[in-house]
Amino acid sequence: MPAFTEHLQVNGEDMEMYTSVPSGSGPFPAVVVAFHVGGVDEFDRVMADRLAEAGYVAVVPDMFHRFTPEIWEGPRLDRLKHLSDPEIIDDINAAVGFLEGHSAVDSNRLGITGFCMGGRVTWLMAAVSSVFKAAVPYYGGSIMDIWGAGSQSPFDLSSGIDCPMMFHFGQEDGNPSPDDQVKLDGELTRLGKPHEFFSYPDAGHAFMDHTGQRYNKEAAESSWPRTLEFFAQHLK
Predict the structure, then answer these.
(1) What is the domain count for the chain?
(2) Are 96 and 59 in contact (CB under 8 A)?
(3) Is residue 25 over pLDDT 90?
(4) Which domain does 15 fall in, by range?
């Protein structure tokens, strides 16, 4: 299973993107992985590789490529303050453009998933792009908030969601909280958007991250097969 770093141009700037490709001959469906606040780290690479093992070309674009050394050296969560929704959309669209032009990819079968801030990005992109056939946010927080130069929050844009969604929550999470889950579920129901929400007991934020202290084995091992089944249903 080959994996490599691709270099893309986004508005004249270089963006690295971790890319993992299934063994065998394609074309394959593909999944964009929107990373967590740690950036393109071991966790995100492992998740991309797991998707490739399941038969998907998986890419993790580096949405932090504009950051200065000062931002990198600052507190980890402060990175979120330097993100802007229009730039996020440009970065993910660049990844989509790469997939659409790749000979190993069936461009009619694209999905997106993401963790932590990447879960928010997953909701945002499902709302602003019709290219995705399935979206799976994991504990995406701040969906009701606008980032940077954006004019509407991902929540405000929910009417644009054009694909089925599966969302995984931790019952002990504070962002998104159980109340947020109710609000998000209610909005998608009101809009008639097909969706499945799962909440995992005793699990908090970042329960999928096997490299971190908040990893919850039971929630991780319950949610991932559901995600793969969901992608198989809509992308294969």
Answers:
(1) 1
(2) no
(3) no
(4) 3-235
